[in-house]
């Protein structure tokens, strides 16, 4: 006849089992298949800079390029939009950008502003074309990208410089754009902003397959002033600014966060505007009609 465990032993075994269960880690909740299959967000750091490097404006110091290289090297952005640069500035900045993205292909794009009197491009004091630019990177030399560029159809006729816009469709993931709007007519700047965000960029996005779209630039418009930059920001879009004239706007499938102003130490009259982009391909963006 087998002896039964005593009541004390039975109680001790029960307590031991309870204690063992208490220290075991809880099983993680099962991840739904749909959630596992959802595309993961893409996170990019974006930097907007106005370098005032034409050599003709009062804000020119001759030190903006050196400071821009320092900022790019320290902040390590994935995307940089430039205003008021000369054509040969972009290749010079290319080296600093390549240095923070070794093994990646750097994509560089430039668009000159027009010059109404000559029918040619606006020129820097050194004779180079003057305009806007963009730097980003892609995984391989064969990764596709498409450049779109032009001048705004509405211009301030009192200003010989015809303002331009520039976009790069990056690997089907993002449509990245920049512009420098009219500085001599704020109502003209507002009209340019409206047309760019309501017509030009949605048309390109539709052509490219409804890409998440981000725009960085010196819009020469302020929030809380008349005219107000917020009046040309489409419903659902996000916007951050430098508390002055530079802004970054994004379609609803992009979250803008972590704004920072990067000091330029007097090298130009604008700070660097730094932001983080969280691109969520599972969220529907603003689709053009």
TrEMBL record:
Residues making up the signal peptide according to the UniProt record: 1-26
Pfam family, one: Exo_endo_phos
Coiled-coil features, chain-numbered ranges: none
Annotated InterPro entries: Endo/exonu/phosph_ase_sf, Endo/exonuclease/phosphatase
Swiss-Prot/TrEMBL keywords: Signal
Record-annotated Endonuclease/exonuclease/phosphatase domain positions: 62-270
Gene Ontology molecular function: any one: catalytic activity
Protein origin, superkingdom: Bacteria
Record protein name field: Endonuclease/exonuclease/phosphatase domain-containing protein
Native source organism of the sequence: Micromonospora violae
């Amino acid at each position: 006849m087998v002896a039964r465990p005593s009541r004390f032993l039975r109680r001790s075994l029960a307590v031991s089992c309870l204690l063992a269960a208490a220290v075991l880690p809880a099983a993680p909740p099962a991840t739904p298949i749909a959630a596992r299959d959802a595309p993961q967000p893409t996170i990019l750091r974006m930097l907007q800079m106005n370098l005032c490097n034409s050599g003709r404006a009062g804000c020119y110091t001759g030190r903006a390029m050196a400071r821009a290289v320092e900022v790019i090297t320290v902040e390590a952005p994935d995307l940089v939009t430039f205003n008021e640069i000369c054509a040969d500035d972009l290749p010079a900045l290319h080296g600093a950008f390549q240095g923070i993205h070794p093994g990646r292909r750097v994509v560089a794009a430039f668009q000159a502003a027009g010059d109404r009197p000559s029918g040619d491009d606006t020129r820097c004091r050194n004779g180079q074309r003057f305009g806007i630019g963009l730097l980003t990177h892609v995984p391989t030399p064969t990764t596709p990208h498409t450049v779109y560029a032009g001048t705004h159809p509405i211009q301030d006729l009192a200003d010989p410089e015809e303002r331009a816009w520039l976009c790069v469709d990056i690997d089907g993931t993002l449509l990245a754009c920049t512009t420098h709007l009219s500085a001599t007519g704020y109502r003209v700047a507002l009209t340019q902003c409206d047309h760019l965000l309501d017509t030009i960029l949605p048309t390109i996005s539709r052509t490219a397959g409804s890409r998440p779209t981000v725009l960085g630039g010196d819009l020469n418009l302020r929030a809380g002033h008349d005219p107000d930059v917020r009046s040309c920001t489409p419903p659902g879009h996000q916007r951050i600014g430098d508390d002055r004239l530079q802004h970054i706007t994004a379609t609803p499938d992009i979250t803008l966060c972590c704004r920072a102003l990067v000091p330029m130490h007097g090298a130009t009259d604008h700070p660097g505007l730094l932001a983080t982009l969280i691109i969520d391909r599972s969220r529907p963006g603003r689709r053009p009609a």
